[in-house]
Amino acid sequence: MTAQQPGPAGPDGPVAALSIRGLAKRFGQKIAVDGLSLEVPAGSFFGIVGPNGAGKTTTLSMATGLLRPDFGTAVVHGVDVWARPLEAKRLMGILPDGVRLFDRLTGEQLVTYAGLLRGMDKDVVASRVGELLAALDLAQDAGTLVVDYSAGMTKKIALASALIHAPRLLVLDEPFEAVDPVSASNIRSILDSYVASGGTVIVSSHVMDLVQRMCDHVAVVAAGRLLAAGTVDEVRAGASLEDRFVQLVGGRSRTEGLKWLRTF
Amino acid sequence: MVAHLLRLKLTLLRNGLRRSPWQLVGMAFAGLYALGLVATLVLVLVLLRRADHELVQTAVVLGGAAAILGWGIIPVVASATDMTLDPARFTTFAIPMKQMLAGLALGGLIGIPGLATTLVALSTVVTWSRGVLPALAALIGAVLGVLTCIVLSKVVTTATASLAASRRFKDVSAIAFMVPLVLLGPIVAGVGRGISASAGFLPEFAQTVSWTPLGAPWAIAGDLDAGQPGQAALKLMISVAVLAGLAWCWKLLLERALVNPPYSGSGKRKGGKLGLFGLLPAVPAGAVMARSLTYWIRDPRYSGSLIVVPLLPVLLVFQGSQTGDFGTLAALAPLTAFILAWSISADVSYDNTAFALHLASGVRGVDDRLGRALACLAFALPVVLVFAIGHSAVSSDWAPLPGQLGLSLGILFTGVGLSSVVSARYTVAVPLPGDSPFKKPPGNVGQTLAVQFAGMGILFVLVLPEAALLVAQLVTGNSLFGWLNLAAGLLLGLGLLVAGVKLGGKWLDARGPELLAQVTVNR
Question: Strand A71-76 relative to strand A217-222: parallel, antiparallel, unpaired?
């Protein structure tokens, strides 16, 4: 594990919402995450940005108990995710990217299922499902099978499944992909009030603009390593987050020949 | 441009094989099977060269007509069309329509079905090499016939593309296709008997078919050989006109399809109906059970195996009526118990990455296992009981019933217990969610076979006590062994069921993330 330059900003609370120490994962020859450490302060709206293949999804999977790390630890509100997984998962709501849903259920059934799996009371689940579907503009399609949903609706129903048990930490991998602007701003206001009342949100995204406007903390990840972390203002250091990001990650790469394109 | 499309198809094929050596093995097996079939047909066609004219004409025309019909029907019904060169993927490229049609048509020839059809069709040239003219006519007929096959299948798949893209059609057609597949034996026997009963009628039938688009291209050579050039010319015209007509239809349909992509949305439906989730107890295991049962009904990969259950008695009764011995009906209940119990051994593989929800929610492994096992038992238990008791009622012989029940329930409970363990530890290659149950699944075929065979071997060992007691009852005729069997089936079976659920749950708790990583490989 290599020592990382600018370390994460010191957590202001006594216990960080999520504390990652030296997480590493190798897939065959490829090192996807290379000793990544990160502190997410409780009550923060934390953005993780990085180019495609930077290891964002792999890191978040390891931090949430979906993928066993080769090295390192992840601790959620003082509970070690890999030593006491069931306890840690009770504290987290997770929206993984690139996994399927049980899409032969209706939207309403899927969110209910997510609640019941967590051992919640039937009546509580029923009332929360109704409110969540209304808040995410899905009430009109509650009885439609998820397999017939559009990409954005699928994202929203997965988000509802992650929110149902009122977790203390929300880990959202690419939550705004394919979501229409109206729903996206609804989701943002839900998340804003959630953070205002003491919850912690971690989102990963490609959209720098969104992260700059929405988050108070940000971490820049590339090639499985942490390049910078801290409050958004610290990281962007006067420039826009997008410019700073390109500067950190290392400019644009040249494109290959694409010879077949010229054969017409 | 045509060459480019062909090269693209070849490259896609090669890269598909390169993904894993097991793909190559699968392709090799399919290739060997097709090769055997093709070799047989070619040999028959070569031997027919010396046969009687009417027989040859009948065989070639009817065989060719069946081939065209098959190319038209199978891609739609099996929803297993080869979509590597899906025209929709070329929408954004301004490829001239003529070249695109030619490229796609010739691309359709690459692949096992296309090559096999071409080879068999070309061997009719040997069959008709009784003179220069018939041989030449056979060559033209074969080319026209094969092209008709390809273009017809393209017309049909393009025309039904929006239909085939709708989930409901896919679900229904996959299940409907299961019925003739299971009943293949009786159907083939019935058709065979029908043909042998009306052998004299066949040449006349072939004569009629030869005037239709299905038979015309295959009849040209025969008519020339019989000294009827006028008829041959007419049939040549029919074939060319049909091919041109089909190509024109395909062009129109494709032009329309390229600017009107298939729309597969369905109406909005408000909520309020929780289905089984509202009925079953609101605890994690109950929720898993409700979800599994919903899938047994809604997911064609599950309901496809459910549809087999009512067909099993039909099959066994048919077999009995062929041999006059209905003894095999006694196997109905144990066989059904085995099929249903074993069907959940790939449950997590069927979930694919949706299993992440269970993992993220921190469901205890035992709850996961118990829910799935109860869902299977909820319908398997009544079905097995009905089949066992029904068998005794039909044969009005109640003496073997306790033994029957003992063995069947033993297999059912033990099998569900074993499946709970197997699916918690091993993944197998299954069709992905949303795919047709007949689609060749991606993934490791070798591991699938190993898991399946080892699992069945272990199940056989675990139900040996019940099997031994059944044999003892059959040999001695002592009904005490039957009652002992019932007790053993219930006690031993339920014991192993509980043990299986517990062990499976423990393994799932320990290795959940690894299991998710395994199913992630095949998404």
Answer: unpaired
